[in-house]
Structures are given as structure tokens and as C-alpha cells.
Amino acid sequence: MASHRVVVLALTGLLPFELGIPHRIFGRAKDPAGEPLYEILTCALAPGPVRTDADFAVQVEHGPELLATADTVVVPASYELGPVYEEGRLTGELAAALAHIRPGTRLVSICTGGYVLAAAGFLDGRPATTHWFHAEHFQRLFPAVRVDAGVLYTDDGDVLTSAGVAAGIDLCLHIVRRDHGAAVANDVARRTVVPPHRDGGQAQFIERPVPQPQLASTAAARAWVLDRLHEPVRLVDLARQEAMSVRTFTRRFREEAGISPGEWIVGQRVERARRLLERTDLPMEQVARETGFGTAQSLRKHVQAALGVSPTAYRRTFRASGGDAGEEGRESGAGSGAGIGNLPSPDGPSVDAGSVH
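RESULT FIELD:
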């Protein structure tokens, strides 16, 4: 299978960290034979040095005509977008560069790279996000865009956007997962030493992303439940692991993870289901039991809500073709938390995972 070409557009004032994200994430994705699944190239508005926001420039060999060869175009952040940021319009040079992009090419932005896609009209009528600091300005400048300032990334099929910095890693991992399944994406995450999956609908601004040492964390409860995903789980049991009241635990969990305990647990169960569907031939009833969803019907409901495809179709895509998931493998921008609420009453009986909604 021919590798998928990703072309990264380097603009003056770019952030070196975000320029490197597509190369690091897509460049680590391999097939079972160890062959790369993506070819990653960089272009600029003109070949030569491109100034960054640091004390060095990067030398780019390719000009904008390379965009015509891309299957996916990635626009990382820049702090020197000029009229794109100030007035919401493209310069003639940038408009001419973007005109090289073929219809149907997948478009991706990281942080303020979304301004470029919006100014070109690619985001009109679509959901999009950018760094929370710029979100209000972004919405005023581009009223036709459906801006969601609170999420890590959005996925509208052929157009995907992310918030700033590390959210670009999350989005690129999401794309690898969408294209080639959870096993490949998890392998990339391990090699990159980052979490394998942060849901796109997770809060962008988390009050306590790194808990202060003197404050109790919810990490022990999360580790505890990961060993028991196949079992019914009550919120009171999670709170007990941290010696907290249910109310305190729920508040602290949302502050640290950006989503409710129920959303997080269902997301972890969906991820485990993906791995079992990709790597085993277990019948659906057993996959449901192993992941804590209880029944095949409940498994189907949650996988369909998270991935937009049934468990059977997901397995067929990633075990038969082993390649691009196409329409069947696409996830919604809401990700594995879609349609999921809190855990049941802490004083109620244990329930199977399919009832956690």
C-alpha cells in the first residue's frame, strides 16, 4: 500500500515545537512489517530559510507546489500571520500557495494555524477550535465558523483543527488512530512517551493539569479502575480509593482530567474494546464482558456513539484491510465521551458498564 503523504506548511514566525509534531507522530506510524505508513514533507511559501519565533530559522527545501501532491496538509501555528490574524484575509502569496491544494485533500491545523484555514474559507459552517487564548478573537474574525473554545480538537471528516501545543499531538494521534486503528496509534504514543488517547471533547483548559504535591490526586483511583474495567464500578468505590467524599472526588477528577469520571471510564472501555476488536477474534458478547459493557447490545451502543461505526464494521476495517479506515473508521469530534454523562448514584447498586450513562 502506498504511504499517505503529509505536507506541512511552514509559515514565517512558526513555532518549532508545533512544526515538529506531524513529523514525530506520523513519522513513527509503522505497519506490521515495520514500513512507514506516512511520508512527511515540509514546504514553505518559497524554498529557503523560514524564521521561527525562536532564535533560529529552519531551512525548507520545497516550495508551495508540493501542496498539490499532499493527501493531508497540516498548518502549524505561527505568531506572524499578519493580515490573516489581523483582518481575516489571505495575502496574495498565501492564497496562491493554498490554491495548489487538490479538492478532497484532508486539512489539519494546529493552534493558530486554524486562522489560515478559516481565512481561506475552509472552515465556513464547520466546527473548529484553536488555542483558548485566541478563541474569542477567532470567532469575531470568522463568524461563519462554529468555534468550540473548550475542546482539544475537532474532527469534521476532511477538516480537523486543534487547540495549542500538546493538543496538536492529541490530534495527530487521533488521525493515526482513525486511519490505522488503536494498536498503531498506541505504539506511536509509547514511542513518543505521551498518553495514547485524550478525547477530543476533553476540556482544553483544565484547572489543575498537574496536581500540587500537597493536594490529593485522583491518579490512584484511575489506576485502580483500569485493572477492573470488566467489572461494575460505582462512584463511591472510586472516591474511596482516594479517601475522599464522592462530591470532592467528582470535583477533583473533573479539575484534573477535564471530564467526568463516567465519561473517562467509558472512554477507557471503548479503547480496550478497540484493541480486542483489532487483535482478537473474540465473539462480541465476550468483548462486551471483557470491557465491562456487559452485553453485545451495550457494546454496540457505546462503540457506535464513540466511533460512528459498529463493532463488527470496526473489526472488519482494521483486521481485514489493515489500512486506511476511510469512512467506516472515522471518529466524531466528540470522541469516546460522546453522549455519556456521570456514573450512577454512589449509594445505588453496582451496575454493568452499559448502564453508565
